[in-house]
Amino acid sequence: MSNNKILNIQKLGFPWETEDPFLMTVHHKDAYPAGNEKQGPAESLEGRNLGQDFTIKDGFRMYHGTTVPGFPAHPHKGFETVTIVLEGLVDHFDSTGAKGRYGNGDVQWLTTGKGCLHSEMFPLVHQDKDNPLELFQIWLNLAAKDKTADPDYKMLWAEDIPELELTSSNGKKTTVRLIAGRLQGNDSLEPAAASWAMDPNHHVGIYLLHMEPNAVYTLPAVSATLNRNLYFYEGEEIHLDGEIISVYHRVKLTGEQEIEITNGDKEAYILVLEGEPIGEPVAQYGPFVMNTEEEIRDAFNDYRRTQFGGWQWGNLDPVNERSAGRFAQHGDGRIEKR
């Protein structure tokens, strides 16, 4: 490597490796077929390990779903999920009494805080055509003082998320979808209130780059203590500081220097995650993220005792009506419709 702008290059696995303040990132892309009357796949599910279906078959996975693909009710505590849906829909239900449907560019920012149960199902609402799904789920840690925050979520609706279109000297364009942070003098929508990203001094950035062939984009300098990772997940190759990076690689970059990205001859799609580290111990066991092993044991005991408020939705894999549209009904009764 020519200098210290590039600190590491790593092939992507599953899940994608992240750094403090992030915990994990997953990328789901499934070619779901037309839906049936229950909003599940209108084709046979024989030969699948239903309940644990994580192997692509016929272009899609059912995950933990048995009728509708997705993730039936499960607990979380001590961190946040940022779910970016590029295509398709997600139905959300949780133990605060909240529910909703979002997708096709929407982002849900969920603070699990002191604990909640939620389900994430992928309803196949179209019966006359395919229902493709593509999303990222990013786990963002909470500082110790915020791990007892009340569970809540905030919707960043697609129509409101800033999108920057930048043209390089050769006339080629880079489109930046700004989920969190500040770029080119533009601020993202506000994250959830308890989030590490709420303080601008933490420099949390989450953004998606779409680069035309041969486009050039420069990541700005931020700070020497910043953890910055670039995830090149679709395309052919990009050029960074004299290095050729092939698709499906993570590149750890320095945070205090500008870094020019030059795309190759095919469109490129990149996720950038960056932020100042929280710098606290992390104890994680499954869906619980705390600071010590004792706190993890306490979290399990709390869940066994309280079920984090319980589950009021009957079955563990609920979905909204097919015609529901995009909406968010919060635990306090507030309703947003799109």
From TrEMBL:
Family label: Belongs to the pirin family.
Stored PANTHER family: PIRIN (PTHR13903:SF8), PIRIN-RELATED (PTHR13903)
InterPro entries: Pirin (IPR012093), Pirin_C_dom (IPR008778), Pirin_N_dom (IPR003829), RmlC-like_jellyroll (IPR014710), RmlC_Cupin_sf (IPR011051)
Pfam families in the record: Pirin (PF02678), Pirin_C (PF05726)
Domain Pirin C-terminal: 209-309
CDD domains (alphabetical): cupin_pirin_N
Record protein name field: Pirin
Top-level taxonomic group: Bacteria
Coiled-coil annotated residue ranges, if any: none
Domain Pirin N-terminal: 50-140
